[in-house]
Design a protein that fits this description.
Layout (H helix, E strand, L loop, with lengths): L3 E5 L4 H12 L3 E6 L6 E2 L2 E2 H10 L4 E4 L5 H10 L4 E4 L6 H6 L1 H21 L4 E7 L23 H19 L4 E7 L1 E3 L18 H10 L5 E4 L11 E2 L1 E3 H15 L5 E6 L5 E2 H12 L5 E4 L8 E2 L4 H7 L7 H14 L11
Parallel strand pairs: 1-2, 1-6, 2-5, 6-7, 7-8, 8-13, 9-12, 10-15, 11-16
Antiparallel strand pairs: 3-4, 11-14
EC number: 5.1.3.2
GO molecular function, one term: UDP-N-acetylglucosamine 4-epimerase activity
Protein name: UDP-glucose 4-epimerase
């Protein structure tokens, strides 16, 4: 019988791609989401509905907020989970600077509720969706897992850091716990089917969805926040990773849990940094469209450059990013062109 894995925030961008990989790897995902960043199709998120169609399967879904601890208890009484993949949380850097208390309340309380309910029901295996924002302004590049953490430049990053610390402390106290903390760099792209992808609700906070919306004509112009950074062209440099590569990293992490690994931390990135203007050019090539942009002031909490040293994941998880920048942009453009208004198009044909 297939192992059941609880996926929190499984209707969102990264969670939904991980649901695909879980099913293809022979697991049985049970998905919960509160629709804060998902489009509804009846009682089910459109992303989950499309995965069911894509893989000709049915997926158990529950509308549930992790702040609802009694609802979570009820779910854990119903199921015997082998592991939990925890994606749920607020995730916009800029918004976190404007609404710090909301980010601390939602992200920290949700994670504490989850850990407490897991402990009560003897579910001791966790894969946590963390972020390279825990490193703050890089003291050296590329960033390896030994780089100091906690000097975060925004409240979103701090919530990821605090949750990591909670998990580490819990694993120290409870020796039968295993956790893999995955520090993502910048996920982009979409599933090659074009059926699922990143569909920000409202104005996109991340670069690539915004660029794609300019290319498709939904937005007039890209704001490039700052062109006076100490980088090759003055614009911010980031390590962009295909979301499917990222999802495969989670399957590798699940396998690592089987080794009774304790608490482990891995970067998921490519090891290569690209600037904002390089990404604009790459998307122009993929889409065949000119992407207009203007230079705007720097955003609070942003840093000049951030890219990974991903070798530890390669050595210990037998995982490595496969897709190059061209493929990332091609898959993103396929998703955007097939779904000009995102999931609200209804079911893609």
């Amino acid at each position: 019988m297939a192992e059941k894995v609880l996926v929190t925030g499984g209707a969102g961008y990264i969670g939904s791609h991980c649901v695909v990989e879980l099913i293809e790897a022979g697991y049985q995902p049970v998905v919960i989401d509160n629709f804060s960043n998902a489009v509804r199709e009846g009682d089910v998120p459109e992303s989950i509905h499309r995965i069911e169609k894509l893989l000709d399967t049915s997926i158990e879904f529950h509308e549930l907020d992790l702040l609802d601890q009694p609802g979570l208890e009820k779910l854990f009484k119903k199921h015997s989970f082998s592991a939990v993949m925890h994606f749920a949380g607020l995730k916009a850097v800029g918004e976190s600077v404007e609404q710090p208390l909301r980010y601390y309340r939602v992200n920290l309380n949700a994670s504490m509720n989850l850990l407490e309910v897991m402990q009560a029901h003897r579910v001791h295996n966790l894969v946590f969706s963390s972020s390279a924002t825990v490193y703050g302004d890089p003291q050296h590049l590329p960033i390896d897992e030994q780089h100091p953490v906690g000097g975060c430049t925004n409240p979103y990053g701090k919530t990821k850091y605090f949750i990591e610390e909670m998990i580490k402390d819990h694993c120290k106290a409870e020796k039968d716990w295993n956790a893999v903390l995955l520090r993502y760099f910048n996920p982009i792209g979409a599933h090659s089917s074009g059926l699922i992808g990143e569909d920000p609700q409202g104005i996109p906070n991340n670069l690539l969805p915004y660029v794609a919306q300019v290319a498709i004509g939904r937005r007039k112009c890209l704001n490039v926040f700052g062109n006076d950074y100490d980088t090759l062209d003055g614009t911010g440099v980031r390590d962009y990773i295909h979301v499917v590569d990222l999802a495969k990293g989670h399957i590798a992490a699940l396998k690592k849990l089987k080794e009774d690994c304790g608490c482990k931390v891995y970067n998921l990135g490519t090891g290569t940094g690209y600037s904002v203007l390089q990404m604009v050019k790459a998307m122009e090539k993929a889409s065949g469209k000119e992407i207009s942009y203007k230079i705007a002031p720097r955003r609070g909490g942003d840093i000049a450059s951030c890219y990974a040293d991903p070798r530890l994941a390669e050595n210990e998880l037998a995982w490595k990013a496969e897709f190059d920048l061209e493929r990332m942009c091609e898959d993103l453009w396929r998703w955007q062109s097939m779904n000009p208004t995102g999931f609200s198009n209804g079911t893609a044909s």
